[in-house]
Amino acid sequence: MIFAAAFLKLLKLVYKRKESPVRVNVRGVEISMVCDNITVNGKGHLCFDGQDTVELAQKYGTPVYLMDEDRIRYNCRVYRRAMEKYFGGESMALYASKAASFAKIYSIVSEEGLGADVVSSGEIYTAMAAGFDMSKAFFHSNNKTDEDIAYAISCGIGFFVADNVEELNAIERIAAQKNVKQKVLLRLTPGIDPHTYAAVATGKVDSKFGSAIETGQAEEITKYALSLEHVVLDGFHCHVGSQVFDSDVYLRASDVMLEFISDMKKKYNYSAKRLDLGGGYGVRYIESHPHIDIDANIKQVADSIKAKAAQLNIEMPVIHMEPGRSIVADAGMTLYTVGTIKKIPGYKNYVSIDGGMTDNPRFALYRSPYTVILANKADKPCDFECSLVGRCCESGDIIQENIKLPDDVSRGDIAAVLTTGAYNYSMASNYNRIPRPPIVMVRGNESYVAVKRESLADLVANDVL
Ligand code: LLP
Q: Which of 425, 419, 423, 403 lies closest to 284, judged by CA?
């Protein structure tokens, strides 16, 4: 009986989501939403995972990051099932925790059967704090310090993803000191342009990450890794970029990687066990962004890899993918309280909020688009053109330019910025000594704090007089 109820709940969770863009009709006003966990209730209030965001703002204060736990779990399951269905065996998705790293998220992804990609001792420490199984963790970054390497090995990290020869040498030396054999993947650059914004394109030959196949450095590092005693070369890794919508990119990258694997087999009789294709699938920040069908994309990649492996006559490697953004982005929403409204006749209008580039630097850094909705007036027509700006002391502190809000937007209104689950909290700062907002998780009918709001006292905790 209990089992049947649990099974039904699971089914509901998995199937309640529609995958298409959602348009909500409230009292005759058509509102478009970028994700189907967003609705509007009878009071005209914006709801997130079914919960009234105006009430959440009252309960927890603003600014506040909301995270929809149900959506995170759903996104994890889409990846888990697709990896199981199309690759099987040990193949597994690894949550790229740089997208949002806090203790609770490691428990959630672990419960959903994902491994993790970690990039610093800080992320390892956070994962450890949550009791994450470190044998399922892959340690990236292009410049791991000796301390990072020693710490990761002492935590029992499953895999290093070594970026370059110096790092490989450091892993060998420290693994020898600790008398362990350490599994390592080599990060390679397949020379693929992912057609995304420059700051997040990483697979091109001139990238600061990895060793290029084209220049012969990938082969050199492979040969060298095979000669080491405490490094166990387990396979290869590549990551072409982030916020990628062109699915062809993964097909081309995996082709190049499999050809390299086949080349290494021929030249050194080395059979790579693992191929990690990195992360990068794009998400919808605004309505014009396409929706990516993850299941269909993974099937396409799997079909292509299987055909290529057969053609090259090499063993099918264990496949990993490292989604970050597509696990957490649409599970996030940030709520702010509106403050000053400045109208400069003939020029432009500003709506200021009680947060800004300190909690979301993505427009300042990448001019990233976002959808903004007034949460307490979500059913009102939007004709007031303005820029949503933060409260930091610089003009670049903008969350979004040229958006439309209701004409009567005023001090005290609640502004919601959608799709903020990825690279917002993890990139937040204390610029202008502004404390970081809390993370409040919503789940079913409940909500709870996963990360507390920073206090003013927290800001001086490390200051020495
Ligand atoms: N694997 C590796 C090795 C990565 O470098 C990244 C992201 C991922 C996986 C995850 O990619 P995702 O699925 O999240 O696209 N701060 C930027 C994004 C930087 C991405 C860095 N690497 C932003 O806010 O857009």
A: 419
Helices (H) and strands (E) in the chain, counts: 13, 23
Contact criterion met (CB below 8 Å) for 188 and 213: yes
Please report, for the chain, the start and end positions of each structural domain, with discontinuous segments joined by +. 2-68+330-458, 70-326
Terminal alpha carbon distance of the chain: 62
Q: For ligand 1, what atom is nearest to the CA of residue 99? A: 14
| Beta pairing, strands 231-237 & 274-276 | parallel
Pocket test for ligand 1, best of 98, 120, 188 (most atoms within 8 A of CB): 98
**Is the Cβ–Cβ distance between 21 and 289 less than 8 Å?**
no
Between the CA of 124 and the centroid of ligand 1 the distance, in Å, is 17
Query: What is the 457 CA–ligand 1 centroid distance (Å)?
Result: 32
Tens digits of residue pLDDT in 258-284: 999 999 999 999 999 999 999 999 999
Closest approach atom of ligand 1 to CA 282: 15
Give the residues surrounding ligand 1 with Cβ less than 6 Å away.
96, 98-99, 117, 140, 200, 239, 242-243, 278-280, 322-326, 362, 366, 422-423, 427
Indicate the pTM of the whole model. Answer: 0.93
CA distance 444 to 431: 35
Ligand 1: centre distance to CA 462 (Å): 30
- How many CB atoms lie under 10 A from the CB of residue 427? 17
Q: What residues act catalytically?
A: 393
Classify domain 2-68+330-458 at the CATH class level.
Answer: mainly beta
Ligand 1 atom 8, closest CA: 279
Distances (CA, A) of 212 to 181, 326, 337, 387, 428: 26, 27, 48, 42, 32
Residue of 64, 32, 96, 14 lying closest to 425 (CA atoms): 64
pLDDT digit string, tens, across residues 150-197:
999 999 999 999 999 999 999 999 999 999 999 999 999 998 876 666
70-326: CATH homologous superfamily? Alanine racemase (3.20.20.10)
Specify which residues 413 forms β-bridges with. none
Q: Is the dihedral of CA 169, 229, 253, 280 positive or negative?
A: negative
Residue reference for tokens 């060998």: 172
